Amino acid sequence: MVVVFYGKAMPLTHMIKNTISILLMLLAVAQAAAVEKADSVYRLIDKAMAGADAYFERREARIDGLKSRLQGSREPARRYALEFSLYEEYRGLSNDSALAYIERAAATAAARGDKASAAKCMALEACQCSMSGLYAEALVVLGRIDLQSLDSVGLPLYYHARSDLYAGIAAHTAVPSMKSGYAGLSSAYEDSLLAVTGEDDALYLQHMEKRMFAAGDYYGALRYNEKWMRLRGHVPTEFAVIAFYRYLDYKMLGNEAEWTYWLAMSALADIRNGTTDQASMWELAQHMYTTGDYERANRYIDFAGACVRKFHTALRSYQVLPVLSVISKKYQADMASTNRMLYVALVAASVFALTVLCFAAYLVRQRRRLAAAQASLREGNERLTKLNGEMQKAMRELDLSNRRLTATGERLNAAVAGLDESNRVKEKYIGLFLRQCSSYIERMDHMRRDVLAMVKAKRYGELYDMVKKHGFRDKEQEELFEIFDSTFIRLFPTFVDEFNQLLRPECRIALADQSKLNTGVRIFALIRLGIDDSSKIAEFLHYSVNTIYNYRARIKNGAMVSRDEFEDMVRSIGLPRRVAKGCSDTTDGGPSEE
User: Fold this and answer.
1) CA-to-CA distance for 237 and 49, rounded, in angstroms?
2) For 178-191, how does the pLDDT look when each residue is reduced to its tens digit (9 = 90+)?
3) Alpha-carbon distances of 113 from 79, 116, 527, rounded to whole Å
4) What values do phi and psi take at 5, rounded to 5?
5) pLDDT digits over 61-72, tens only?
6) Which residues contact 517 (CB under 8 A, 6 or more apart)?
7) Cα separation of 261 and 243, whole Å?
8) I need a surface site. Which of 4, 202, 495, 585 has the fewest CB within 10 A?
9) Which residues lie closer than 8 Å to 262 by C-beta, 6 or more apart?
10) Which residues, other chains included, contact 272 with Cβ-Cβ below 8 Å and sequence gap of 6+?
């Protein structure tokens, strides 16, 4: 048979094999995750055991506070509430004290005429007796309860106490006929309990889980356990019990990763709650023993034994003693084996130490021989070091001379480069000057001929009007500026950009026409050409000296450097870097000598 899977034909047997492989892989991943989860809880248990005294002290502090309030209370209802609270605190800590305070609470309730509360307390007292193996005492207490006084809370507790009592007796009796009889009574009272409770009651869920467990329906037991956990798992003391029941369900299903996790969670909750009635801890110690973790098993069973002694019941001691004995013997055997190994290691270490001492004596003799050879080598090294020092001194002096020569050469190169640049600029401007002079001569000659013609023709009015107009001078001046600007921009094409780099962003100059300079830039262009006297600049630009001074001051106020450095940096615009550096070195007095 062939199956089409994602558009591909695949034999059914191959698909089944692939599916099984994927399931096995997922199962292995889940198993590994569960094992890691249990290991993390073990680490939390070790930490909680180290601080267990703090948990017990916290519970004792609560008990002391309740006792203090009880001593100062005279009102019966208040005394009953405090005695009942003390019973709840002692219930998982000390069996004798729990029985004493629940009996006192029952007496107080009876004295104030609260028969329902008194009956409820007697049912709880019977449960406490059954849990600690006091079955005869539990029968006596249950026989004293007036069934007519039981309310909706007390009646389920009464049936619960009866069911647990007969289940305990059936578990510990050796007579088969009696075992089945007591088991039947336990089941009958459990039926009565289930009849008066609903699925929203913790006792109902607990007994239904036990019933499913006894019937071998462990998945059914887990379903009731899940409901029980959702209902009462938020209560720390009840969480420990619910987790223990879940451990039993998973153990019967053979899911080791889950049952070890929930057993560890139950033990951790018992420690953090300051509980001494710990069934989960000695079960966990037994598991550690079977897995070979004897050191942790010994610590866990010692802790469980100390808790049993504090809880003070013969039944718990009877249950823990066999496990404690087996683990203790195994731990002692391991310790003896470890001690033997330590003895062997100590002997081996002693032999090794003796060998090392002999080898050390040999090394001392060899070192003495080497010391003499090293002394002669040291003398030779000292002489070589002295000669090396003298050579290094000579090399330093030679290096200093070389650096001085290099610095002098760089200054000469800078001076030559500066002269080259100056000559280039001068040549350009001499050519410009000669062309401009020639142009002016031609214009003057043209004007002379025009004037002569007007005089011959006696056009004196026209001549007067021509001479009277100022447009001629303005036109000539504008033409001069255009020639100056175009020539300067060709000589220094990056002048405007570099000039703006010396100014703060908000003070930078934007030219409307990139081929023309404005008055402010034109002033500093003349400074770049070496004309830095304000009167000469004013004469060239046909401005007053004060106007030129104000332009220079306003632009220098927007400089990113100091006012004194600004014009020096303008003069260096367009020079090669080596020339600018050489000029700076010359100004500073040359390179320093180390």
Assistant:
1) 17
2) 999 999 999 999 99
3) 14, 9, 117
4) -125, 115
5) 999 999 999 998
6) 481, 485, 488, 489, 496, 511, 525
7) 9
8) 4
9) 243, 244, 246, 247, 250
10) 48, 55, 236
